[in-house]
Design brief:
heterotetramer; A: about 300 residues; alpha/beta; TIM Barrel; four-stranded antiparallel sheet; 9 helices; B: about 270 residues; seven-stranded antiparallel sheet; seven-stranded mixed sheet; 6 helices; binds flavin-adenine dinucleotide; binds flavin mononucleotide; binds FE2/S2 (inorganic) cluster
């Protein structure tokens, strides 16, 4: 049997297949379909310090090989998470990673600090790349100075593995990655969604209530691959590849481009068992290519 | 009540009206228990234009033959592709999803459906009848072409028809049908159809002091509560139609009480 | 009959449907399939001051609802264009627009100046957004200062309609658009391709000889629509919408987002008659929606 | 010689080998004149996985019945979808594209094909025979499964077979076949197949002083010279395979003379 385990800073994952924040709920939504413990990790949906109702409906539009969303970080807030959601998450026998979001640095810090105290949350992913909120979110991830600042502030209060999730809506992803590394990040994850838009030609108005939203799915994979390749060459931190991954071949491409692990997002909506299929497919690939470990693939193009 | 992913096999594809197809599908293993008002997320086979699954109400369930049916109205690329599938095709579906209609009601109940909103009502009518209810069912459409599956409904319910153009049944919108004058005699209304119609039915029910449940349509990406894309505003905040619906009591829906909105939306049956 | 004509600065187009540079050759490649004179305009493939062989093969990869290319501005150079290609273009009875590319400001200026002297070239499109050349190209289009500089330099020597084509690979497309407007552009066209990458998992190497290439096709349409909407709201110049347009509905969406005209690129490869279909489809739409002119749609969401 | 876009109708879909399909298609209007070695760009109907058209050589043309055929090897999603199409399906194709083989040759000529490179050779053999040539045809493959359409070739040419595993014909690569020892007796070699094979054939032809034309495969986006994606390095610089090929005289191809490269590529039939 090939060895699928991989390491992200202090995290040892049984395999490199995780689920992307906002596309996998809190895991239990998928428990009828897959064994959650078989995943490398679950990045649960965004948590903010205060509860958020998210953006008005419609929040979704289908596009060619992709979709737009403008959910806008709907969640019940930090306190509810700690009291009601965390106890359920403790039952899941794999890495549970909190996606930390906010509209102010204080907000990020507050959530990160609280998460640090939860044993079963083994890492946080700092979401400085959400395009669907008016303040904060992507704004932090599209400027070198604010990306550095928010990372540094969170680093001060968060001693465990700190993943920072980058926005693709920038001229130079490498500059942002370097800033975040300087700020003290342990791991980089990319990409979040591309800022995009859909219009209903018959109704002559934008499809989304927020006009613009975030593009995800296979359509964005080529952009994600390029950015993972650029960042993993330029920065010494481990990288988690995200964007349009639908099958084991896609996952392998990200490993080759330099990712040590991957996250599956939109594809979960189309096939709730896709993560299981991907884990199996990676095993088959390693056997077929006579490789002992998935780590041999990382960055090997 | 656990959800399954099944490779269903299409046993029959019939066309009860120019724009409708009924797909009767065989399940590969024993059907899970389904409730009226629940739905399935169906993958459109090899289509360039349907990336995400498409939600369809469960139109009928035959536990004996282990079949599940969908009534599909052709509105876009996805539904058109589904309508053209030959028997024998594999249809991947995730079901049963969502919460159905409340079945613990005193009778008599009135079912109101318009367009493809007719879909869940057949399964609902059959289930109610099985439980000994007297079921009344008002079906409406733009024209006679939209009134499909009538023979099937007649087997299980007292059926009333209305069309906007008067080509079948009474002429007018569903809420203008004479049965609505006797609305107060019912204990509950179950409705499914275009939003304009649902709002009109909700308002009429309120006026008659009758409780009303509606099945909402909505853009869905996942159908299982993971993406949070399918929300509707309720009195308790944004709620997912796919998990806390698609059936809602209208009292829980925010903004469903204003007569102005109803008037704006009414003609859009 | 609805009126399809539209205006781009000094250009009066019979209809708003043009073809994108690099995807339509010099027009004659399509003359077996459509009447070239029925087009609103043809943007011919990039011309540089010196001949260029382009990048090594492979230069193309198919992706989900899109493709990557790294052609790298292969062309026979300015002199050959003027002597051998221009005389043929003169036979085509519609606007012929030259796509001016280069790796230095002098290069751009040289080509623009020469093009100014060719009567049948009624406008130039300054390509400061090609991701497939080592020097210049996209580099000009991803920095506010160099975008301004090259536009200003070309403006000095080019008196006719100056279109500048923007790169989507930037944090703020609006900032670049404003700079180019300040530099003296008459019209903006967007988007060029998104910088992206494809990997062959079996061969474990990048598909393209250049590793990265430009993503085009329906996959990029949501990003293009967003950028057209942002730019047309922020800048007073007419905008040409480009990116993934495959049918009349797509074209209408770009008009609604603020484009006065559109260019069809990759879709020409799939259906060489697509432009004719789009023109007909826009007419049908206007009739169905009781609109007299296509101009009523522009920016009307 | 103008190009057409046709909605062809599949009249027949037969499977001459486990991984091959022959699609015989009816043209909606009189077939344009096609030359052996030319190809078509075929749209894969409603496939999620084939965005661009796929290029296929013209395998056969029957002007009397107004049909055109393609021999397709199943290698990926696009070809697999095409292979499964039932008769009656519409296949949109742009053709005839590119430049074919030079037909003004003295005889005898040797045709060499491997894998799906067999495709253009049938049309070529038939055309040569029609013009009174004696045609010799060497077909090679990994195993007997790759040797398809042999009966059709036998009708028009002297046929020689080789397989790498020896399951049919002589054992070995095509260039190891005994006919190659008599290569100097031919006036020209026409070859189509995997690049490794073509390079080996080119080298052998050079050694024997025989002129050689090869049909190249290549990634194509447009097939009509518009995208410049399909270049090959020639002595005159980068040239488009879709318009200046797919058939090239090997003397015009850069880097096709080194024995080292041939050795590296040879086993990849
Ligand atoms: C819970 C639920 C149950 C449903 N049950 C049925 C059913 O039993 N039978 C049936 O025929 N239809 C049903 N629908 C609607 C059905 O899902 C849509 O008609 C279908 O998704 C359209 O797919 P398409 O690819 O053909 O259309 P598209 O090409 O995606 O769109 C065509 C048109 O339909 C509209 N549309 C797309 N999706 C939806 C949607 N989810 N709701 C409303 N309008 C939409 C679009 O705005 C557009 O105007 C149900 C929807 C939901 C949410
Ligand atoms: C001028 C020309 C004529 C051709 N004639 C024939 C023919 O008559 N019969 C036939 O079976 N095939 C022919 N081919 C090859 C055929 O076009 C490819 O096999 C087909 O495009 C693959 O499509 P797919 O979707 O099945 O494979 P994909 O899923 O796109 O790819 C599967 C595998 O095939 C490889 N591949 C994809 N496209 C090509 C290509 N164009 N050339 C080589 N490898 C490719 C990929 O690298 C990959 O390894 C021809 C190609 C050219 C350029
Ligand atoms: C419906 C939806 C909601 C999302 N919510 C979040 C979120 O809360 N936090 C976050 O960091 N990313 C969020 N994302 C982005 C994904 O985690 C992922 O980065 C992106 O979708 C690209 O991956 P994919 O193409 O595999 O979906 C969301 C994406 C989708 C589609
Ligand atoms: C094969 C290819 C070659 C291209 N060459 C050029 C070019 O020379 N100059 C240029 O400005 N844009 C070039 N482009 C970009 C297109 O003009 C267009 O901006 C882009 O493809 C997006 O439009 P589309 O999605 O409709 O193709 C090229 C695109 C493709 C696919
Ligand atoms: S459709 Fe995803 S949460 Fe309802
Ligand atoms: S395939 Fe486009 S130029 Fe040859």
């Amino acid at each position: 049997m090939p060895d699928l385990s991989t390491t992200l800073h202090q995290l040892s994952l049984k395999n490199p297949v995780m689920t992307a924040s906002g596309t996998f709920g809190y895991g239990k939504e998928f428990s009828d379909f897959i064994d959650l413990a078989s995943l490398g990790g679950i990045i649960v949906k965004a948590t903010t310090s205060e509860p958020r109702e998210g953006n008005p409906y419609p929040r979704m539009a289908e596009t060619a090989s992709g979709m737009l969303n403008s959910v806008g970080l709907q969640n019940k807030g930090l306190d509810y998470f700690v009291k009601h959601i965390y106890p359920e998450l403790q039952q899941i026998n794999t890495h549970i990673i909190a996606n930390v979001s906010g509209s102010t640095i204080e907000g990020y810090v507050e959530v990160a600090e609280k998460m640090a105290g939860l044993d079963h949350i083994t890492a946080i992913e700092l979401n400085i790349s959400c395009p669907n909120v008016k303040q904060g979110g992507m704004a932090f991830g599209t400027s070198v100075t604010s990306a550095l600042e928010v990372t540094r502030a969170v680093r001060k209060v968060y001693p465990k593995t700190l993943i920072v999730k980058l926005s693709p809506n920038v001229t130079s992803i490498v500059d942002i990655a370097r800033a975040v590394a300087d700020g003290g990040a342990d791991v980089l994850s990319l990409i979040n969604t591309l800022l995009a838009m859909a219009i209903d030609a018959e109704k002559r108005r934008p499809v989304l209530s927020t006009v613009t939203g975030g593009l995800s799915g296979p359509a964005v994979k080529p952009v994600a691959l390029r950015m993972v390749w650029q960042v993993s060459k330029a920065v010494k931190l481990p990288v988690i590849g995200i964007g349009g991954i639908c099958n084991a071949t896609d996952a392998i491409e990200f490993f080759l481009a330099g990712a040590s692990a991957i996250q599956v997002g939109t594809a979960n909506f189309i096939n709730p068992r896709v993560t299981t299929d991907i884990i199996k497919g990676i095993e088959d690939y390693l056997l077929r290519h006579n490789l002992q470990t998935v780590r041999e693939l990382v960055g090997s193009i | 009540m656990s959800k399954v992913i099944h490779d269903l096999i299409i046993l029959e594809n019939r066309q009860p009206g120019p724009e409708y197809h009924v797909l009767v599908c065989k399940a590969p293993e024993t059907l899970p228990v389904c409730y009226p008002g629940q739905f399935a997320e169906v993958a459109v086979p090899s289509s360039t234009h349907a990336f995400l699954r498409r939600p369809f109400s469960i139109h009928n369930v035959d536990y004996q033959n282990n079949t599940i049916s969908f009534l599909i109205k052709m509105v876009g690329q996805g539904t058109r592709t589904l309508g053209q599938l030959p028997t024998g095709t594999v249809l991947n579906a995730i079901y049963p999803l969502g919460k159905g209609f409340s079945l613990n009601q005193a009778e008599p109940v009135l079912l109101v459906g318009g367009g493809c909103g007719i879909a869940p009502l057949l399964f609902l009518a059959k289930t109610l009848k099985l439980n000994g209810y007297t079921v009344h069912c008002l079906l409406g459409g733009r024209s006679a072409d939209d009134l499909v599956e009538i023979p099937e409904f007649r087997e299980t319910a007292e059926v009333y028809l209305t069309t906007e153009d008067g080509t079948q049944g009474e002429k007018g919108f569903v809420t203008q049908h004479s049965i609505f004058r006797e609305l107060a005699g019912f204990t509950r209304v179950f409705a499914c159809g275009p939003e304009g119609m649902l709002r009109a039915v909700a308002l009429a029910s309120r006026a008659a002091g009758v409780s009303c449940e509606v099945s909402l349509e909505n853009n869905m990406a996942c159908g299982i509560g993971a993406c949070l894309c399918c929300v509707v505003e309720t009195r308790k905040g944004n709620r997912c139609v796919c998990t806390e619906g698609p059936v809602f009591n209208v009292l829980d829906l925010k903004g469903w009480e204003s007569p102005q909105e109803v008037a704006d939306n009414c003609p859009v049956i």
